[in-house]
Amino acid sequence: MKTTPSFAVYALAFGAFFTATSELVVSGILNVIAADLKISLAEAGLLITAYSGAFAVGTPVVVSLTARLERRRVLLAALGAFILGSFAAGASSTLAELLLSRMLLGVSSGVYLVVAFGAAARLVPPEKLGRAIGTIVLGFSSAMILGVPIGIAVASRLGWQAIFLLLGAVSLGFVFLLYRLLPKLEGDAPVPFRRQFKAIGSMVVVSALALTFFRESGNSVLFTFMTPYLQQLLHYGVSGVGAAMLAFGAVGAAASRIGGYGVDRWGAAPVIAAGVALHAAALLLLPLLAPSPAAGTLLLGVVVFAMFAAGPAIQSYFIQQAPESANLILSVNTSVIHLGLAAGAGAGGALLAEAATLRFHPWLAAGVLLLGLAAGLYGFARGRSLHPAREG
């Protein structure tokens, strides 16, 4: 079955939607899981830690071991493992069983996402790279808009196991669709590991990884506590929080597409710099304008827009800097993302314990983001000096 490259990229994005839903939905049903398994909320939180840990550690290992295999085969195998993890989660009756299934889901989701980025880059010409990556990111952000609310609704009506069983069943059908829509894509050329790790160790790539770490840490400082922030600082009710998160998800979905177009028009580096700078500026203003719910909500919308607009640019930047080692670098970047999320959540929790208020979290987040911006700007300058003719 022949299909256009753009349609194949959208198919990859659907897979990202399913895997992202399995990651994000747990935060929304953590209390339901805790009550059903008769464990504390803190113990249930280990489900998020186990997923992120497996994602961060397992993804680079599996991506490296499968680098030379045909890409469609790797994607289908990752989805197969994801389906097994989903059914295992749905059949779990103890915390230990659920933790093991979450680890399998973390590794399989990480491998799928990294290989999907690499496959999308091969399906389109270089001048459309940003839009292709933006489409994959759109699949992830759509999970916030549709996947998580649907998952919470299913869990409340049918039990938390039902959402995982549903994800497994739908993904099982999607495997056959992806097999028909996605063309065969050869694995990576046999590049020695020494050369690949040399690319990872270059100051340009290390600076970009530092940007990722500080950017994700800054995001996590505030977004880990987004619901209580909306309730305590902007005076939202329960229904208002749901509506706001839905609106933010829609903004993020649009921003991921706009960011992708921006990469193709202006290059990855300018979009990253502008996005992170706008993100930090909105956070710096937020505590000053938080007494006005309308102004605070608008600024949070700007934060979400800037965050998602820069996402495709960062992934595109890594692919452009080291195309021979793109899959390995992207997998390392996903690990750094999860490390950053964990660090930011810890920093935000420590600040909350010390200050007993969420008012100052945006300022801490902005400070961390500015560290990332400084690292990114250094890397961009270093890249231009080494490759004067390279754009983006």
Characterise this structure:
This protein has 392 residues and is mostly helical. It contains 16 helices and no strands. The chain has helices at 5-28, 30-37, 41-44, 46-65, 71-91, 95-123, 129-158, 160-181, 193-200, 203-223, 226-232, 238-266, 268-289, 293-321, 326-355, 361-386. Helix 1 (5-28) runs antiparallel to helix 6, helix 6 runs antiparallel to helix 7 (129-158) and helix 10 (203-223) runs antiparallel to helix 14. The radius of gyration is 20 Å and the shape is globular.
Task: Name the descriptors.
392 residues, 16 helices, mainly alpha, single chain
What's the gist of this structure?
The protein is an all-alpha fold and 392 residues long. The chain has 16 helices and no strands.
Number of helices: 16
What value does the Rg take, in angstroms? 20 Å
N/C terminus separation: 35 Å
How many strands, which pairing sense, and closed or not: the largest β-sheet?
none
Could you name the ranges where pLDDT drops below 50 across 5 or more consecutive residues?
Answer: none
Q: How do the helices and strands line up, and which of them pair or pack?
A:
Layout: H1 5-28, H2 30-37, H3 41-44, H4 46-65, H5 71-91, H6 95-123, H7 129-158, H8 160-181, H9 193-200, H10 203-223, H11 226-232, H12 238-266, H13 268-289, H14 293-321, H15 326-355, H16 361-386
